[in-house]
Amino acid sequence: MHVLVVHNRYASAQPSGENKVVDQEVALLRGAGHRVEVFERRSDDIAARSLLGKVAVPLLVPWNPAVRKELAARLRAERPDVVHVHNVFPLLSPAVLAACADAGVPAVATLHNYTQVCPPGTLQRDGRPCTECVGSAPLPAVRHGCYRNSRLATVPLAVSLSVNRRRWWSGVERFFCISAAQRDVLVRAGMPAELLAVKHNFVPDPGVRREGDGEHLLYLGRLAEAKGVRLLMAAWDELAASGGVGVPLMIAGAGPLEPEVTAWAAGRDDVRCVGLLDTAECRKAIARSVAVVAPSTWLEAFGLVAVEAMAAGVPAVAAGHGAFVELVEDGVTGLLHRPGEAASLASCLRRITAEPVRNREMGQAARRRYEQDFSPAVGLEHLVEGYRTAIAGRTESMGGSK
């Protein structure tokens, strides 16, 4: 099969689960013998633009005509069987869908978040769940400045959502939702249920698994409010006040809260901030964990770090909402805490560290779940099945001609 992957890469200064998923899927397909090409833009390149070029970027968010022309020409020249769209913000835009239509190539799209119904894609405002824009015009998002706390920065996203909603629905043969929880939200918001299929992200086998009981609790991800970092700090302070849990907390990642987290951890011997880690270092850090902590306050559409922990035979402590409810079986492969409650998170961290035998059993169960539902073999099967469905759907809609 010949696949063209379309993706706007997120800035490299902060960890991106989407970039990782795209790279892993490309490698998986190529390893299975499929021909895969990539059409991409990089947010890192914005910094090198002229002042006028930078000013023009928001205007390209709803529609980038140059991308439509360039991609359509490439599609006509290469004739791939299917186009797989991932992120189009900010430099690609939904114009990529028009390019696919121009060239008569079917498109599928992975929905990594909630940008189809929420301009910033988080379903959250001021640290709390928010669905004001779901199923309606995204004016509340502009009023509240939901993207980067800026009304001006939110406008291009809101405009794009409004003017391109129907284009997405008519221009994509199959949407991949990365969890059933995400699909449920999108269906309730009015997206066509028949276009939405659940395809969990897969995780490559790390090649290293936990031996023994682990050395630390690990937070691995973006240091941001929505990821529950402040909640974790509050829970850890509560644990420290009662004598701690016997192992340190390792915090790995970067993001807007990094100065706050670094200042909080300074001078403590029960917290280690290690910054961004490369892939090999991440795998080692996970495999040495008593548990991986994922206390997100927003409704995660997937929760990649929980599955990366499963692959290494490590349980997770995660927020009991969003996709984590289907990823982490409470008491079996990890523990779920009450979302947004520091005391509940502290209690779960205490439990996961206080019962090493039970912890090992959870880790073993987590690994079995990984092999059953999130391995590369399972991911490849679902990916190719989705492509074939999209190709068949386009062929049928064209009356049997390609």
Beta-strand percent range:
15-25%
Low-confidence stretches: none
CATH superfamily of the largest domain: Glycogen Phosphorylase B
Radius of gyration: 21 Å
Averaged pLDDT, please? 94
The level 1 CATH classification of the largest domain is: Alpha Beta
Give the strand tally. 14
**What is the assembly state of the chains in this entry?**
single chain
Structural class of the secondary elements? Answer: alpha/beta
CATH architecture of the largest domain: 3-Layer(aba) Sandwich
Tally of DSSP helical segments: 15
List keywords for this structure.
six-stranded parallel beta sheet, 14 strands, about 15% strand, Rossmann fold, alpha/beta, about 400 residues, about 45% helix, 2 domains
Model description:
- With 402 residues, this protein is of the alpha/beta class.
- It folds into two domains: 2-202 and 376-397, Rossmann fold (3-Layer(aba) Sandwich), CATH 3.40.50; 216-373, Glycogen Phosphorylase B (Rossmann fold).
- The chain contains 15 helices and 14 strands.
- The protein has helices at residues 17-31, 51-60, 65-78, 95-103, 139-144, 151-171, 180-188, 229-241, 258-265, 279-287, 304-311, 324-327, 342-354, 356-373, 376-397; strands at 2-9, 35-42, 82-85, 107-111, 124-125, 128-129, 174-177, 196-198, 216-220, 249-252, 271-275, 289-294, 316-319, 334-337.
- It has a six-stranded parallel sheet with strand order 2-1-3-4-7-8, sandwiched between helices. A six-stranded parallel sheet has the order 11-10-9-12-13-14, sandwiched between helices. A two-stranded antiparallel ribbon has the order 5-6.
- Strand 1, helix 1 (17-31) and strand 2 (35-42) form a beta-alpha-beta unit.
- The longest helix has 22 residues, at 376-397.
